[in-house]
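Researcher: Batch entry, complex prediction.
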Amino acid sequence: MIATGQLIFSVAIFLFCFGALTFFTKRSAVVALMGIELMLNGVNLVLVQAGQIYKNAEGTSLVLFVTLVAAAEAALALSIFVILYRKYGTLTLENFRSLKG
Amino acid sequence: MTDVLNIVEAPLSWIILLPAAGALLNGLFRLKSTLNGLLATAFCFAAFVVSILQFLKFPEASKLADPGYLWFQAGHVKAQMGFELTPFMSVMLLIITGVGTLIHLYATSYMSHDKSQARFFAYLNLFVTSMLVLALSSDLIGVFLGWEGVGVCSYLLIGFWFEEDKNARAGIKAFMTNRVGDLGFLVALFVAFAYFGTSSVSGIMEWIADPGRAAALPVWVLTVFALAIFWAACGKSAQIPLYIWLPDAMAGPTPVSALIHAATMVTSGILVIVRLWPIFATQTEVLSVIFWVALSTALLAALMALTQRDLKKVLAYSTVSQLGFMFAALGAGAPTAAFFHVVTHACFKALLFLTAGSVIHGMHDEKDIFKMGGLRKKMPWSHVAYLVGCVAIAGFPFTSGFFSKDLILTKVFESRGVLGYGLLLLAAMLTSFYMFRSYFLTFSSTPRSHEAEHAHESSAMMIVPLMILSLLSLFVGWLEIPHMWGHLQYFSHWVESSGAKAVEGHEVEAATEWLLMGIATIASLASAFFAYVKYKKGPVTSSENFAWKLSFNKFYVDEIYDSFILKPLRKIGTCLSLWIDEYGVNGTLHGSFASYRITGQLASIFHTGSVQSYALLMLLGLLVVWGVVNVW
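Model: Structure tokens for the complex:
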């Protein structure tokens, strides 16, 4: 029988790895952003569960802040996408390589 | 500075400053028509007037001096920028400014159609300034400043028409050859600092005059000093082996040839030796070297002059040969005779060059004497002037060349015996022959080309200096008449009061002196007659044998220098530039920045520009950090 805590950690790690995989492999910027959000949620889950284990509100409260910042970040990222799309007509990540050395 | 600018207190500085001001004004302002030339002439003439005023202070004063100011000091090396005038230099002063003024006046007309007159006259005035610094400085460093100054002006003026590659090359050749000679002057300066502790001329003279101090010196010091000065003189005064620049220097405008390459600059070597005469007087071996070098120069240059077709080249080789005469007199221990010939030569050679310029002007820049002929009627004034010049340089009786050359020949006979005398007499005969060859080819017979048929006489502004110089060429010689004619040796009294005493030799008897004079006169008249017989009808082209070719090609000296000195030097230069510069210095630099570039290129492999790969690397990096922290 798997303990609830272990299950929750497993889900968190799965979410993180799935998100990372999505971010590394998907060609669309929007999907990559979704991958990042998944990774973020995995981490959030770990924080909440750790708070539960140690009977401590800090983990849960930190998650509240992270959610807030993530919302702002998502808004920023989406507005950048809009500008990029207007300028280049595409959101495929392979097209943005101006940082190439 | 107030002392320097006060004309009563410091007249010598004014003599130098006047032409310097002329050079500055001409360099800054470009005026209409011939005003630049007149401006330059005016400044030179002003210097001439001040010079005459100084000249008249002799012989009451034995020496005039401007203390000047301390130019620089480094340790015990002091350079004083002061001027002094001895009676003998005062004669040279009159030549530089007087003949200089006449040549400026002539050049004003000669250059009136040139588009860069302002530049020309700025150079010409600057030359006069440098020459005056050379003649008047009381310190060898000041002399060296003037020495280099005339070298630079000579370079600038030879290459004045630098649009033609040939002229620019001639300028560089003159400058480089002079640099080789200047090395000797530097060595002499170092010796003076190291052993005399001073570079002022009077300081060195005091040292030499003091027997105790002079005896304390190592024996070789004075010999090295004298030889180094002579080497420098070889460069400026065109002696073997450094004479090669002078004939090429004829690429410059003719007034330049007259002023620099005949009357003044080329005599600066003799001036310096005469000023330092007390040192040379004790060095009999050095005097022997000077004599034999001078004798070979006089002969060789005379042989080269025999076949030249370019009128100015004939005069150039004649100048080299005459300078050989002057040095021969120095080598015979007779500075007065040498300096007397400097003075007379300045008059008649300036005359000859200016007349040649007038002829070339009238011939529309044709210099080949084979294409001239019959100019006697077309250019009567130039004809008279050239004839006077020829007569004077050949040493016909009672002209200035007669007195000065005779004095040299007598002195050579006294101290060097029959062999030296005979060879120098041969050079004198050749002089007479080649000068009259050029005279007859240019002026007698009938015109041999279209230009000669339409030649025209030059303007009055060019003819007037010619006439004045003609009079000088005829009569300057009377300043120093032979002993047996009376006691009128103004010149030697004048010069010897400056300390340039002849080396004691046995005086020849009056009868011998009469004999020598007779031989020299007959020799020069006979050669002139021979030239008349041979060339009165025009050029003789049938005699192009081996000797003729040797002379016409200047004994291939230029070619020999080229293959034995210049080519190896150029090879060494190429090797150095290839190995040291290209592979050594450049290689190190290229190698070091190549290593940076390669590192950068390796690092830039990871900079793909793709956000995702950056994130992946970040993750890997984190894993590595985690691994290092937790596993170790």
